[in-house]
Design a protein that fits this description.
single chain; alpha+beta; 2 helices; 8 strands
Length: 145
Amino acid sequence: MLAFIRTPGQPFKLAVAAPMHRGRRMPKPRLDADGYITGMDTLAAGAVAHEYQNFWNNEKKEGASGYRLAKDSYSRKAFPAVHKGAYVAFAGHGSIFGFRTADGGSFFLFGMVNDPKHVNQVLSEALLVPQGSRTIQELGADWFS
């Protein structure tokens, strides 16, 4: 999954990239009456990104925003191995891209940015929150150093 950004008068630039996890698929977007993709819920986007930052920063405040990582998520599986050998904490996240899904849920794509002194610099995340759910499902993720 790729997200591009462009400032007026400039060419498009790659903003975020995340490969799909095996067996996962992109959700279908909700279209408006003119056939355009319906924008994401920006409040939910910020809460979901903050939840991932809390989780990886080992602050044990998971769920404070009302959202929770799915029990079978990539991050839950990777956390013990990553934290066993390297200190990982994220200072924040970049722009969040996303849309409402055809079934009423939300899709988000963003990168979490690490302090330069740490081993891993960026963790990109592609996430799905199904309609009516507060559980965050990972569709894809990748580390960049």
